[in-house]
Amino acid sequence: MADAIRNAMTGIFDSNYPWICSILLLIIVILLILIIARMCTTSNCISPSVTRVDFRTYRLPSGIHEPKVHRTAAAPASGSNASSQFVSSVTQLPGSVNMPETTPLLSENVKRMIESIQCYQERQESGGCGLVNFANSCYINSALQCLCHIRSFTDIILSIQEKYQRHLTPISSAYAQLLTKMKSLPRSSTTAYELKACLSSVNQRFSTADQQDSHEFLTTLIEAMHDELMDNYQDGSIDDLMHGTIRSVVKCNECLDESYTDQSFLSLPISVHQSETTTSLSGMYQQFAGFLSAFIGRSISLDDCFERLFSVEQLNEGAHWFCSKCQKLTKVTKTFHLEHVPRVLILQLKRFSNDLTDDTKVKTKVSFKHQLDLQKFMNRCELAQSWLYTLVAVVVHEGTLTSGHYTAFARHLDNECWHHFNDEDVSPASSKKVLTSDAYILVYERR
Ligand SMILES: [Zn+2]
Known about the structure:
Strand content: 15-25%
Largest sheet: 8 strands, mixed
Structural class: alpha+beta
Bound molecules: zinc ion
Number of strands: 18
Radius of gyration: 29 Å
Helix content: 40-55%
């Protein structure tokens, strides 16, 4: 029998039928792959790595379903005792596994799971509407999620809507309607298509289906609503809320005379270049330095960025200023102060160059905190006034300038619960995840 098989195989492999030989080899390879894949799947059930499931990164399909959770009748709504009772009644989450009770990582995972479930519950109770992505509209969606989670701005828009009702101007009306719709659809999603169409009349750039800058959309929308309300009703409430003033002070090194210029801002641009040395480099060397920094994970803090922005700057050698007091060209120093800061502070981390030919993105990691104190950067210290801000929203950009994706983190208006808004998908997010994100826009609000 064995001899017969050997003879048959020899016949086949004697190149009389090379195509049969190829097919047989292919089948053997496929079978091997299937066996290996099966073994891997089976071993995952007991692999310790599976116990490292991060429940906070678990995302619900379409952002509208919740994990199947049911409480026992005796379980209280909150508290540590509630947690243990609560976890014991959690049914199998999609993708979750039965974990050994003695695993050290279990307690951490359980905590994360509790946090995740509590956030889902809060979302069910109080809202979290996704926005559908229509033709590269993630830049719009992220900006809008950011804006509608600013409490003071939302309050103003809703009061304006109530005040002017049917006579509300087009863009403000479209935004107010979207805001109302999002509030009424806490477990679903909607689209911002009508608002985009309205805003396209102000900026043609938004009329195409191309990806655009989320920051530009955000500031264009705010300015458009401000202009509409000022032109039609002399209503400056958006201006009072969101515009600040930065003062540049030029000081003569000889007579110490000062002159200043005030400039209004809706958004404060923050340079995130790592060092002056890096910025003075050029071409390939600068790119290499940037790559190296990104590779080794170098970062800069937001506080450092502010310190640099408001530090004293000696103007370059050869740059002279005509001093009206000395009546001659003199050397000067230049400093910036915040003359007035708005209640809502928008910070744009300058990751993109204004030069259209420069498509490199500054990928410096910027560390930031939930609290931001601006007192030391103010021109005047009014003790009665607090300069302490709280982070309320973050727009994140991932990828490159030509091929990227925008998402947003935002804190719920009624609680401390953060959510990640990835177009129509909405998922709970931990505080740590927010602070370690690749932020592009930060929104702080003074309470
Ligand atoms: Zn002078």
